[in-house]
Request: fold
Amino acid sequence: MPVTVEGPYGCFDFDDAQPRQIWIGAGIGITPFIARLKQLAVTPGEKTIDLFHSTAEFEQKAIDILTSDAAAADVCPHLLVDGKDGRLNGERIRVNVPEWRSASIWFCGPAKFGQALREDFVAHGLPPEHFHQELFQMR
Reply:
């Protein structure tokens, strides 16, 4: 049976001039960040990185693996389970990363959530070009 494999798709390359990055992976949107964590564990980068992962589902083994991958990559994890920790929003990120103004933000997750975060951060002074959003859609 023949199989056709395509991809990868997307535009995340994590390349920019900002000294700090804030990664936000919501639900399955954590996927590109996991790949980058594994790469950074082997080839360390120069940036200070905070990873926010918001999920509705809690699975301890998955959280443990993500925490371990973040430690190996020298990335600071902020893991939230919606029902237990409340929802992630711009204010919560700004409180946890006071240096957010010197960061670029990389988001992957539901489009409306990403748009809300973009609008929030831009309203608080983040240059729009410092907010990068990956979309789960075929182009």
Notes: The chain has one domain: 20-133. Residues 20-133 form a domain with the Rossmann fold fold (CATH 3.40.50.80). The mean pLDDT is 90.
